[in-house]
Amino acid sequence: MDKDIFLKVIDELCDEARAIAHTYFSEPPSMEQKADRTPVTQADRDIEVALVASIRRAFPNHTIVGEEFGEQSATSAQTSVERYTWIVDPVDGTGSFTVGNPLFGTLIGVLRNGAPWIGAVEMPILGERWLGAPAGSFLNGRKVATSTCDSLAKSKLCTTTPDIFDLQERRAFECVASQVALRRYGGDCYNYALLATGRVDLVIEAGLQPHDYLPLVPVIEAAGGIMTDWEGRPLRRHSDGHVIAAANEVLYRQALALLGG
Asked: Is 89 flagged in the annotation as binding?
């Protein structure tokens, strides 16, 4: 199937998510806690419902997996050789959203035969949109690339919060973080978008779910970066949630060695 069809639909989905996010952002709804103690709001649910409905209209024979409502099987059998699965994270950074921090986004990804193929990062309040596909990674239509930084000592490292790490993971993270020029906390999905643009060189995280990382892989890789688990394995739905993203292979190898991969 032609990737341009997917890109057109994804662009429309991002428009849809942006409109709903703006509706809620000025007066965010109350935050609730899910069973896993992560936050959720009505905005999360409304965005996911809208996006799933739009995807289903465009691709009735594709599987859809969303953060809030889980997997929804195709309404008709997939007839092509390729198997497509959509991944939707309606609000990545719900905590930021609820406190009025604009560094939250909507993540949309397409897996082809189980592997990340196309991805999008929509930052609705910032008015920024990344699309990653085999032809490249683009920010608001402009092609972007990761940095050429090839030394940990000169690199900039981001992670959302040190709270995501257990004791062993924190020690591994510190092995890398202690070697870099700058570390920054916060940002959620925006850290990965900045990496694709060359502003950040490394992102290291743990405890992520497939909807948190799978849409990001095409954005990073199409910009020239590398994104795997801490063992150097490709990211898939069954991955364990340990993620490293690096601007290039040289930097990636240095960081991965310190993580124990």
From this structure: yes
25 and 156 Cβ atoms separated by less than 8 Å: no
CA distance 251 to 139: 23
- 193 and 124 in a common domain: no
212 annotated binding-site participant: yes
Q: Tokens 């719900």 identify what position?
A: 94
Give the whole-angstrom CA distance, residue 117 versus residue 127: 24
Residue with tokens 């690339």: 145
Q: Locate tokens 């990073």: which residue? A: 220
Contact 226, 138 (CB under 8 A): no
Burial class (CB in 10 A: 0-12, 13-18, 19+), 134: exposed
Read off the pLDDT of residues 97-106 as tens digits, 9 standing for 90 and up: 999 999 999 9
111-167 confidence digits (pLDDT tens): 999 999 999 999 999 999 999 999 999 999 999 999 999 999 999 999 999 999 999
Q: List CB contacts of 140: < 8 A, sequence separation 6 or more.
A: 127, 128, 129
- Cα(250)–Cα(236) distance, integer angstroms: 23
Supply the CATH number for residue 205's domain: 3.40.190.80
User: Is 67 annotated as contributing to ligand binding?
Assistant: yes
Here the tokens at position 124 are 């609705």
What's the total number of domains in the chain?
2
Report whether 205 belongs to an annotated binding site. no
